[in-house]
Write a structure and sequence with these properties.
Blueprint: E1 2-6, E2 9-13, H1 21-28, E3 47-50, E4 53-56, H2 62-65, E5 69-71, H3 73-76, H4 83-90, H5 100-113, H6 119-125, H7 135-149, E6 157-159, E7 166-168
Helix pairs in contact: 4-7
Length: about 180
Amino acid sequence: MTRFTVNDRPVQFEMDPRTPLLWALRDAANLTGTKYGCGVGDCHACTVMVDGAALRSCLITLAECEGRFVVTVEGLSRDRSHPVQQAMVAEQAVQCGFCTPGIVMSAAALLARNANPSEAEVKAAIPNLCRCGVQPRLVRAIQRAAAVARREEKIDAAPVPGGSGRIPAMVPDTKGQTP
């Protein structure tokens, strides 16, 4: 039995200790924000934070997680209020969303260790593959999130492409919730 902490909750998995963390998170813990992309660590869609470091969950086994602290995109913030999540929306750096959780986790790990990353540092820290082509907006989004985290900027809205109006940067899903 493997024991570690996921999103601030102690967990234990009665699975083969050689099982990739990705499958334990998705299949046993029902944390499906961590995406399966390639299974060999090239795409980074399955990135989570383990003890604060961005790691590809398809490459780390349950045995390697013993006693460690894992954070998935679900654990980053319950209401999607983390500065990286907000900035990704505000800078329109989200398209289909498949690679987004891995990008968000890579960016959150970067900002946890570097509060003011340069463009080169952002590009080096975000190796995630995105077929939708959001990479040009990622640097701007991550640097904006860094500024928000340092309290130099507020994220409240993003420009509407081709229009003069503004849209909210993040609208929490409140369906089915009681006040």
